[in-house]
Each structure stands twice: as C-alpha cells, then as structure tokens.
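Reply to dn_fold:

You asked what the input looked like. This is it:
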Amino acid sequence: MSELNNIVLGVSGSIAAHKAIDLASFLAKSGCRVNVILTADAEEFVRPLPFETLTRSPVIRSLYDRGESPVLHINIADEADLMVIAPATANTIAKLACGIADDPLSCTALALKPDTPILVAPAMNGKMWNHPATKSNVSILCDRGVEFIGPDEGMLSCGYEGIGRFWPIGGISERALEILK
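and this is what came back:
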C-alpha cells in the first residue's frame, strides 16, 4: 500500500460515531489520505476538530463546503480508492440502497467510480438491524458489491443486548487495508 491511497470515511449518526475518530487516526497513520464526511446526525455525537487534527484534512459537513473545489464531494469521490462508512445507521443504509442523495455522504457515495469498493460497518439497535426493510436494503447493497463488516453482538447503548453493536475498530481498519492491497 502506498501513501496515494485515498479513503473517504463517512460517519453517520450513531453513539458509535466517537469510535470513528480512532478509525480515522489508524487509517491516517497507516499512510492513507483520509477525507472524513460527517452527517448532520453524526455531529450530534462528535465534532469535526478531532478528525481534522488526526487526518490533517478538513471535514466535509455540507454539500456547500468547497475546500479547494467548488464541488468538493465530486472531487473526493473521483479520487477515492475506498469508501468506508462507519458507523452506518439504518437511515444511511436505506439512502444508499435507494439512491437518495440529500447530504454529502450519500452524494459522494453515488458519485464514486463504479469500481470503487465500499465497506460498511453498521451500528444500530438489533430490532432495526433485523427489520425486513433493513435486511432488504443490505441485500440490495450486497448485490451491488458493497461489503458489510458487522454488526457484532453485545450490549447496545439503548440497553438491549444482542446484534447491532459496532464492529471493533481493529477489524474494520484491518479489512479496509486488505481491500486496498
């Protein structure tokens, strides 16, 4: 793997969003350029500053963030070698399955080159994960070549125990780097 690998890290609104900070740090320390996209709901759990500090790149929070480009989400999609969405909520998974493009994360995912791999690490309540709509959306995405890692089983933030827990950061980062090889 060379320093030229560009990862788009999409972070959606889950209590597990704070763990994405460690994921961004690990990927950056592994020699990847990491562009972080925070959904509005993710910002209820985490702030941009830790991501910006650890990746040395500005966080994309809006379709109107410009950086060095008037269409930043298209530019990072063009340069992406991998998109990782961690954590991915049921809402984000549904948007991806249905092609809804109403925020920088979903727009960037739709703008990826057709051969750009996507790795999704879900985190949600087990009832949401097991709901037929979510299962259908996951199936649609898998049929399109999207890879899922997790969710894990254990104690969930909502107080339930079962499936839906965010996959361990070490496993997500290891799989992301394997994909880039």
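The radius of gyration is 15 Å.
Hope that clears it up.
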